[in-house]
Specification:
Structural class of chain A: mainly beta
Number of helices of chain B: 0
Helix content of chain A: under 10%
Shape of chain B: globular
Largest interface: A-B, 23 and 22 residues
Distance between the termini of chain B: 37 Å
Oligomer: heterodimer
Order of helices and strands of chain B: EEEEEEEEEEE
Number of strands of chain B: 11
Shape of chain A: globular
Strand content of chain B: over 45%
Helix content of chain B: under 10%
Chain lengths: 113, 113
């Protein structure tokens, strides 16, 4: 079945760039998402990319997709302390009729001043 | 900006009791979902719902679970006889179209004692 994996923890200094990585296993047409979860809050959709794209940029966020390696990354430029949160990679695919999101474990990003 | 809302934010119940978790999806959305996140684990898909029918469900979604859209705005998840292992954060999500991005509510924390 589908599986999504992420590293658990990333620590950066304010003003640096953060890169959060994710790998997935699905081979069919896929949408890949990044969600942000702040303490005690729900899942906020940040951005997404379809598997026929290589890159998507949205203000400080850049998503890169390496289809061959099934590797997705989220780059946050000029990281701020308010970016501290858990970031989830998730996918839906043609295999499941795009009906369910499969989530990674989440990467906890800590931004220090 | 339209958002998904969920009530209550926290529900405490005794084992064996029935609970109903409520969600109000975004008003023009047609696809509705429930997910859960047991503490320290991945967010897991439970069920998807469209046109007053379940379109997909996971192995977790057994006979103890049911979903309903009782009116034009609410979407509910019922657990008939709660178990200790049902303790989790339950998230509702909605999307405008079948392969559309899913927007999540803030979650209901269910504690079964």
């Amino acid at each position: 079945g589908e599986d999504v994996e992420q590293s658990l923890f990333l620590s950066v200094r304010e003003g640096d760039s953060s890169v959060i990585n994710c790998t997935y296993t699905d081979s069919s047409s896929t949408y890949l998402y990044w969600y942000k979860q702040e303490p005690g809050a729900g899942l906020q959709l940040l951005t997404y990319i379809f598997s026929n794209m290589d890159m998507k940029q949205d203000q400080r966020l850049t998503v890169l997709l390496n289809k061959k390696d099934k590797h997705l990354s989220l780059r946050i430029a000029d990281t701020q302390t308010g970016d501290s949160a858990i970031y989830f990679c998730a996918e839906t695919s043609e295999n499941t009729g795009f009906q369910k999101l499969v989530f990674g474990t989440g990467t906890r990003l800590l931004v220090s001043p | 900006e339209p958002e998904v809302t969920q009530t209550p934010s926290h529900q405490v119940t005794q084992m064996g009791q029935e609970v109903i978790l409520r969600c109000v999806p975004i008003s023009n959305h047609l696809y509705f979902y429930w997910y859960r996140q047991i503490l320290g684990q991945k967010v897991e898909f439970l069920v998807s719902f469209y046109n007053n029918e379940i379109s997909e469900k996971s192995e977790i979604f057994d006979d103890q679970f049911s979903v309903e859209r009782p009116d034009g705005s609410n979407f509910t998840l019922k657990i008939r006889s709660t178990k200790l292992e049902d303790s989790a954060m339950y998230f509702c999500a909605s999307s405008e179209r079948e392969n559309g991005e899913q927007y999540f509510g803030p979650g209901t924390r269910l504690t079964v004692t």
